[in-house]
Amino acid sequence: MNNLVILPLVLPVMAGMIMVILRNHIRLHRFLSLLTTTLVGIVSLVLMRQIQAAGIQTLQLGGWEAPFGISFVADMVAILLVLVTAIVTFCCVSYAFSSIGSQRERHYFYPLSQFLIAGVNGSFLTGDIFNLFVCFEVMLVASYVLITLGGTKLQLKESIPYILINMISSFLFLIALAFLYRLTGTLNLAHLSVRVAEIGQDGLMTAVAFLFLIVFSLKAGLFLFFWLPGSYSAPPTAIAALFAALLTKVGIYAIMRLFSLVFYHEPEVTHLLIGVLAAVTMLLGAMGAVAFGDIKSILTYNVVVGVGFILAGFASFTETGLRGSIYYLAHDMIVKALLFLLGGTILHLTGTGKLKEMSGLIRLHPQLGWMFFVAALSISGIPPLSGFLGKIFVTEGTFRAGYFWLGGIGLLTSLMVLYSMLKLFMNVFWGYTNFTEETEKGTTKGLLLPIALLTACTIALGLGAEGLHGVVDLAAAGLLDPQTYIEAVLQERYP
After folding, report:
1. Using one digit for the tens of pLDDT, what is the confidence trace for 311-366?
2. Distance between CA atoms of 52 and 392, rounded to whole angstroms?
3. Shortest CA distance to 239 belongs to which of 376, 331, 136, 117?
4. What pTM did the predictor assign?
């Protein structure tokens, strides 16, 4: 057992509780937020080394052995996502120092962001599906407050469908848990894998799998994403960037974990459905990104496209496709946070999100313009940036699985994403400027550093792909071989 496994959950909770008690010490809140995310990142790197050397790391709380106790499991997929979460959170919180406003800082922005991250990390690391529900709820309750923090009319309006949809999905989650427990007698993920293999994934078990797919699709924005564009465009920039980078990814991870570890016996049914939903999601998201003429809408619909693309690789259920999904998932978390911070900075400077009302911003802010250009090329999959390798592997994986239609839709929507990003760049930054330093609504002071850090990350993820090759391969192999996960958690005990 390894006690480090629970630290990415415990550290943000402890930091958040200290901040709540010391409400008015905003500088302490800022320091603790950065310190906590840095420590989580360091713990993630240590665990990553241990997984490479000794295999999957586990922790059984209270000394109760699995499947009877509460299990936390750090395999390469989970710990890679925890590491990327720490990087994204560090940059978004740093951005908030100069943008979130003193009122929101006094009303618990920093502790709420820590509780949100605790729920995200707990969802990645839990080895029990009921605790996955608990961690989801911790994350969602924090997000309910964050989406309304500040109380603007738009925030309150968009928070209503967001909260209602997530309450419905949580209710369906509980129903699915009840059915699964009735059929298998366990909720431990490793033990569930054993039980489902023994019982067989018949019609009823497949129906339960579909119910879980509906639940996680609502949370990930897979096909059922009608709530997402409004909800992600309403909060302040730092919060919207956290949401775009992290919240849908937890739903994606849950689908990947459950349908590679538990419900993997009928891929011609379950994984084909995931592929169909991914294709429709990519097409609808890309059409939205191309059709709209304001920054927030274009960026939020690109979040939808990313969800579909990641799960297209998973639907192929080939080693190459899974490798692409994992690599693209890490890339997408970084580049979506980057784009939302860039978009928020543009809105801060110009006071408008409509493309027709701005141009030539690169003349006044060349650093901002070229960082946006790098982000646009990265999300579009242009080499040598981070989006390219993931798109190549996902496309190859779908072709190897015989899903040529899915790979073709992925390539088509990639072109549509490139068009939407170039449309943004040409309208916002190119041409004659409509603004002067005197007419700008804000300043970039304190905002460019976190954006530059994320830009450096997406460049490094592309140029340094060879260094991540072993990590991503190990993560993909773990998803394809559930026996490795089972043996690490149950240690040959199959009661």
Report:
1. 999 999 999 999 999 999 999 999 999 999 999 999 988 888 888 888 888 888 89
2. 25
3. 117
4. 0.95
What is the average pLDDT across 168-177? 95
Dist. CA 106–CA 331, nearest whole Å? 33
For 279-300, what is the mean pLDDT? 94
Phi, psi dihedrals of residue 73, rounded to the nearest 5°? -130, 125
Count of beta carbons in the 10 Å neighbourhood of residue 198: 9
Side chain identity at residue 293, one-letter code:
G
Contacts of 31 (CB under 8 A, 6+ apart): none
Q: HSE, CB side, 13 Å, CA atoms: give it for residue 495.
A: 9
The dihedral built from the CA positions of residue 399, 401, 402 and 404, taken in this order, carries a sign that is: negative
Tokens of 223: 């096909």
Nearest partner of 33 among 81, 107, 89, 102, judged by Cα: 89
Q: Omega into 384 within 30° of 0, i.e. cis? A: yes
Query: Tokens representing 342?
Result: 């860039």
Residue 150: which region, alpha, beta or left (left: phi > 0; alpha: psi -120 to 50)?
A: left
State the burial class of residue 404 (Cβ atoms within 10 Å of its Cβ: 0-12, 13-18, 19+): exposed
CB 144 within 8 A of CB 119: no
64-78 b/e (C-beta count within 10 Å ≥ 16 → b): eebbeebbbbbbbbb
Residues 6+ apart with CB under 8 A from 325: 256, 310, 311, 312, 313, 314, 390, 393, 394, 397
As a dihedral over the C-alpha atoms of residue 83, residue 86, residue 90, residue 93, rounded to 10 degrees, the angle is 150
Q: What are phi and psi of 99, to 5 degrees?
A: -130, -25
